[in-house]
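We were asked to recover a plausible sequence for a given structure. The inputs and outputs are reproduced exactly as logged, with field labels preserved.

PROBLEM: sequence recovery
POSITIONS: 118
GIVEN STRUCTURE:
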């Protein structure tokens, strides 16, 4: 669900056109909710972008690299104790079901970790 207000623009739930936020409270809420939405949208991208960089932007399409990043981040969350194996397994099944890669980085993990911006 999109936040009702994002970057100073309110996104009405009734389908009408976006409009500027009317008050400071809406702007503060937009900042918090926008940050939460950005975290969700960034899932898999940090590792995915690093993977693209170390493979010369030629091995994986962007979505494929992000898919591999999602799997890597899910497995990392397991190791850190903030996610459980069934959560990772479900994500892997869903990514595989839509034809995205879930293994085979095509680069050494150490190179991905050391990639610029990783």
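RECOVERED SEQUENCE:
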């Amino acid at each position: 669900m999109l936040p009702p207000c994002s970057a100073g623009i309110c996104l009405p739930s009734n389908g009408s056109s976006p409009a500027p936020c009317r008050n400071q409270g809406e702007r503060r809420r937009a900042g918090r909710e926008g940050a939460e939405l950005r975290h969700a949208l960034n899932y898999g991208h940090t590792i995915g972008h690093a993977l693209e960089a170390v493979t010369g932007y030629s091995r994986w399409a962007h979505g494929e690299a992000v898919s591999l990043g999602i799997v890597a981040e899910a497995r990392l969350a397991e190791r850190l104790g903030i996610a459980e194996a069934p959560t990772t397994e479900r994500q892997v099944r869903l990514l595989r079901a839509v034809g995205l890669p879930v293994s085979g980085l095509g680069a050494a993990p150490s190179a991905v970790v050391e990639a610029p911006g990783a």
